[in-house]
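Task 17 of the worksheet. Students: predict the tertiary structure of the chain below and write it out as structure tokens. Keep your answer in the requested format; marks are given for formatting as well as content.
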Amino acid sequence: MRKRTPAALKLTRLTVAIAIILMPDARGLYAAEYDAIPAAPRAMSNTDSYTLYLTLVVNGQPDDQIVPVQARGEHYLVEAGALTRNHVRIGGQTGLIDVSQLPEVKTNYNSTQQQLVMTVPDDWLPLQKISGNSLLGFTPAQSSTGLLLNYDSYSLHSENGQSYTATWLEQRLFGTAGALSNTGTWRSWWSGKSDDAADGYLRYDTLWKYNDEANMIAWQAGDVINNSLTWSNSTRLGGLRVARNFSVRPDLVTYPLINWSGNAALPGSVDLFINGYKASSSSINAGPFTLTNVPYINGAGEATVVTTDALGRQVSTSVPFYVSNQLLREGLSDFDLTTGALRQNYGIRSADYGDAAASGIWRYGLNDSFTLSLHAEGRLGLQLGGIGGDVAVGRWGTLSSAVSQSRADDSGNQYVVGYSYYTSYFGLAMQHLQRSENYTDISTWKTATQLSRQADQATLSFAPLGAGGGTVGLGYFDIRASDNSRTRLANLSWSRSLWGSSSLYLALNKTLGEQGYNAQVQVIVPLESGASLSTGVQRSTSGDYSERINFNRSAPVSGGLGWNLAYANGNSDYYQADASWKFSQATLSGGVYGESNNNSQWADLSGSLIWMDNALFATNKVNDAFILVSTDGYPDVPVTFENQLTGKTDDRGHLLIPWVSAWYPSKVAIDPLDLPLDASLPQIESRVAVREGSGTLVKFPVTTVRSANLTLLDAQQEPLPVGTPVMETHSGQTTLVGYGGKVWLSGLAASNEIVVKLPQGSCRHDFKIDASGKTSPLFATFVCPDNSSAEKQP
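Model answer:
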């Protein structure tokens, strides 16, 4: 290449400068001014989509899973299954769904929280049914195998010459297959026996019954009583009975509940207030919800529903309501089917059965406002059928009506209509019943008893001055018998609270169409000792007045003394004095009553004998059910029933609780503080429900844990070094020596051996713990190495 001279280089530079100056945009190039930083160059992605791992949030409710989301610009693709799980409607599409293209769906990517937030229409979200917390949760009832004998022996001696002893007895065998019982009375007359009074044993009822909790059905065989409607009658029969039994489920409410529907824009809570008092509080998600809460109410009231969202915003809505326990919930049914031989001369003869008969009723909730009722019964020569219903009249009460037709020698009919309405301070109930002359049923046909031709009754209660002014009650009753005789009664009552827990009661009764009336004024004053004092004045229909005073105290359920002292001053003085002593094995009572020239003395002994868990127990009379607590032979262990101290276990570790209500879950607990230190209890309380007419064994198993607190010393009587290995050879457990040479071992046997690993060899020691297992932990000191047991390491 030829080398340029300096003159040539200067000429070239000058030529380039002139060319630049002469360019069209050169002036603008040199004149440009910058008043801001130029934009950064845009980063180019090597791909059009990328994957994010996000939480889906639909109408404020986050999902509990993280899902992959493909992002393509402003579009987000999510698997169809994840969308369906979160109530996003995708119209049957599958695979990846572009949520940004779904109609009625708003989407937003929250990069801070790593969430894909979507908003869908409220009607896409599922309906939430909030039934609230039941006051009584369902607890399956239990029954152990056992025998029970109830007895109540009553003796009376009167100055008029009558003296007798009557002993009521019940024998009961119970278990998982039900309860078989027999009741009767043994009567012995010592003097003054009347012609129609019978000596010896008189049987009342023999019955086997079993309750199916799952289906709420009661099965009975023996002497049964059929159920009845408000417009039919019950009858005693010897036979079979199958019926609905709602009592086995005390947590179940059979009548329609409060039903209120709303919509929540965001997750939050809903609170329910009944007549100004908070009844329940529940959490809700976004979307529609239905509230059916607080079943234990009846009558009219006002419910206030307060919804609070996640941002603290509240919406309050008041809804008037009327709840009637006469109705059945929609779809719920009640029935009773009974067949057998009619029972005659009950309480007079032990076994007097007549013609075969059958009876049946059926109720069904067609909806929450109407309950249908059917009834049929019959015996040879008689058929009867009827239909009725209960209707909710909006918020203004319940209307009931029924019609029945009987056919025997002649046909007859019966019509019934009734109405009821209740509020917190007002209650009204009315019923009219009309029967034709030839109407009859299985309980009265071919007997001396006749049904009334007409019956009217009306009751009214109200608080004219509010709750503090007391409650006024009015009643009217009009009955026309089969012979057209008529009885009309009217009554007036007023009751109110006075100071403390004392109360005032006033009553006036009159038979319309007759002269005179009777009235009563009474003041009741409870005392701190558990006793109560009552005093009052009573007027008879004939116009005679008597002053009465009564001082009484009921014997405590857990045992103790009770008494009753009464005196009345009128045409003749009447007095009464009795006392009762309730102890754990029985209740003994006795007293005297009558007038000064004619008094009677009486005595009573009642209780129960129970055989269960291979032991015999004497206790107070068991009216319903009972619980037997066992602590595996440990005595003097305190037992509580529903948080109340009941007593302590006996020498065999048993305590019997005889006053339990069947089907209701009860809390039973023990206090383990008085147990030995080496006793271990896996549980100290239990929630138990007992079957009707039976008892159950509640065990609190107590296991013995033998423990040892050892001190290990060396030959100089100094504690072994901390961390020295120790092994118990029988159980195989290992531990280390702690400070002061202490070693704690648990779960030991009666005979034990430890091996201590020392640098110079192993040290062995044997020790024993009391085999009874009811002593405190063993405290012992061992010296290592022990020349008699040391082993040299190889």
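Marker's comment: The first strand starts at residue 50 and ends at 58. DSSP finds three helices and 56 strands in the chain.
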